[in-house]
Design a protein that fits this description.
The chain is α/β, with parallel strands linked by helices. The chain has four domains: 2-197, Rossmann fold (3-Layer(aba) Sandwich); 205-396, Rossmann fold, CATH 3.40.50; 403-502, Arc Repressor Mutant, subunit A, CATH 1.10.10; 525-603, HRDC domain (DNA polymerase, domain 1, Orthogonal Bundle). It is 47% helix and 12% strand. A seven-stranded parallel sheet has the order 3-4-2-5-6-1-7, with helices on both faces. A six-stranded parallel sheet has the order 8-13-12-9-11-10. It has a two-stranded antiparallel sheet with strand order 14-17. The protein starts with a helix and ends with a helix. Bound molecules: adenosine-5'-diphosphate and zinc ion. One of its GO terms (molecular function) is metal ion binding. Belongs to the helicase family. RecQ subfamily.
Length: 604
Amino acid sequence: MTDKAKNILAEVFGYSEFRSHQRKIIENVLQKRHTLVIMPTGGGKSLCYQIPALIFEGLTIVVSPLISLMKDQVEQLTELGVSALFLNSSLSGEEYSRNVELLKKKEVKLLYLAPETLLTQRTLSLLSSLQIDCMAIDEAHCISEWGHDFRPEYRKLAGVRTHFPSATCIALTATATLRVREDIKSSLGFDVSNEFIASFNRQNLYLNITPKDKPVSQTIDFLSGHSGESGIIYCFSRKQVDKLYEILQDGGYSVRPYHAGLSDKERAVNQELFIKDDVQIIVATIAFGMGINKPNVRFVIHFDLPKNIETYYQEIGRAGRDGLKAECVLLFGYGDIRKIKYFINQKSEDEQLVANIHLNALLQFAETSVCRRRPLLNYFGEDYQIEKCDMCDNCLAGDKELADITVLAQKFLSCVKRTNEMFGINHIIDILRGSQSQKIYNFEHEKLSTYGIGKDYSGKQWFHLARQFINNGLMIQDAKYGSLKLTEKAYDVFKGTEKVFGMIEEEDLRQVKQQKREVENDYDRVLFEKLRIMRKELADKAGVPPYIIFPDKTLIEMSTHYPRSDESLFYIHGVGTVKHKKYGAYFLDIINSYLEQKIANNVS
Ligand code: ADP
Ligand code: ZN
């Protein structure tokens, strides 16, 4: 069985090795055991049911929540020569009947369905006349009310399974939360032993958190080192999206906006342009990204702070699905915390508490000086032990020199004490910096001995310090009102028995440190560009996105190994039998004439 799977992997998909877990999952499904797969975005979930589907005699049905995802998968499979179809509301009557005919003729291996389509009597009776060997539930977190994307029709899928008693069920999701996983399992009645959980560590994502200073110039600066690459910039509000979009547009960037204020049509057009590589940058609110499968997103910039770690993880997850390096930059501004707090304060009391806990976890991640992957993966319940990942700003910064900030801590903490632990960070900073604001005079805080003793540091520097005092356990902040309270440890600092070490933020503009891509720099960029143009031409002719023809990795390997013959082309990532036949000659021609040209130039 496994040999068969391995052959299909090479011949149909053009890949040489299974990724971690894939082999075991496929074996499990082939042994007709119900299976739950938890794997991060880009981990390679689709193959886990696509390969069994090609081995099973009968049909595999795949439930998927979004038409765009179904379309994408069917396009990919069709290009690979696999007979796959979908049934959903986007089809015309004619297309629908044609697909039904093909199903009846048993010419189809994979059928993609929206859950509401599957639940109709018409579909169920059609399927009852066919041999269904496998039922895949993609994006299975939609089953759970605790998930970020609950769909009531998904909940009914458990019951539908009784219609296909001989079908093995495989449910797949990239959801990292334990509660959602448990919910999926109990609702589908799955056995724990058939659960496969991959690590959520996306090794190819470079995580970078930079203090937000002049965000527009920081962004432009970053973009200048990434010309020609696809990326997404996430902003907090529609207004911010429009503003940044206009600036970039005026600056000559290939860019489009995306947010809920645009018409459905505009949104669809902008998304399509991005997916087809006709536009390079999308500036978007969180609304963007669901249902896009574009594998070559090379960067994600968080222009504003995301709401919580889950949102952040989900958004950076859209980068680097192809496994090649991608950069994730978060511009971390303390002003953004205030914005998010403002929105939190509009919520009900219970919701406020939860939202504050989530926000604090995010702040801890952003402010950490250890490897970013540690707080990130710990948040998802993973025990990440590696000291240095070499793929985050902290690991590459080398050892940071920590300064002795005991005296500054004493100033700040005593100011908290003298104002009876009733005020928040900003007011304490105002006192230390000798502000003349009305609030100061109302409380007669200009009379305090700590008034004006912190003028040597800017408000921003003090804010950064205050966050460190909190993170070091010297004071705690009331989740609701933001007022500060001293801890036992703070008194040791007063007495001088405990020293405080930390960082004093620099005042000048920080550039987003650029990350070098050593390995991938090794390919022939001139050839790559020629191959890319050919790929775009073929894609436009076929009416599909370029990555459906070949992913970037294929073109990079071609521009590294220069395959010149039919056989050598088979060794390239992503070249299976069907694509080889269909497109091989186009690319070989380019490579051969490029090399001949090169040789001729060298001779003359
Ligand atoms: P997910 O659904 O988990 O987000 P996909 O199934 O879309 O991920 O896979 C992500 C990318 O990795 C796709 O381009 C896919 O073709 C590729 N891929 C999956 N498995 C392998 C493998 N064993 N070898 C090489 N590439 C793979
Ligand atoms: Zn690291």
